[in-house]
Amino acid sequence: MDEHILSAERFATLAEAYGADLRRWPADLRAAAEAHLAVHPQSRGVLIDAARLDDLLAAYRVASPGAALIGRVLAHAPQSGSSWSRAKLWWSGLGLAGAGLAGGLAGAAALWLATPMLAEHRFADSADSQTVFGDIDLNGAIR
Fold this sequence. Notes:
Elements: H1 8-18, H2 27-39, H3 44-59, H4 67-76, H5 83-114, E1 130-131, E2 134-135
Antiparallel strand pairs: 1-2
C-alpha cells in the first residue's frame, strides 16, 4: 500500500479495528502506519486510546455458568439413541436385506419357470425349446 494514501481518518479506523499494537495489523498496512506516525506524531494519541480499549478487552472475563443453567441445558439436550431406536434401526436393516433376498429368489424362480429343463429333455421339440427369452438349442445356448 502506498504510504501517502493512509490518512489520519484511515489510521484512526485501523487503530480501532486492529488495536494499538502494529504487529497485529495486516502486514501490508504496517509500513504505511509507521510512515504515518513518522509524519504525524500526534496520531500516537489514537494508539493510546486504542491501547486502553485493548486493555479493557483483555481484562474482560465471562463468568462460568452456574449449576442451574448447566442442568437446564442438559435436561433439554437431545438424548443419545435409546436401545429401542437402535433396535428399530437394526430391524429395518434386516427388513431391507430380507426384501433383497426375496427379490433374488423371485428372479431365480422366474428364470427357472421360464427355461425348460434341458437336462431331462434330450430331444428337440419346438414347444420345449421355446422360452420367453428366445429359442434354446440342446446345448443350452440362446438363439
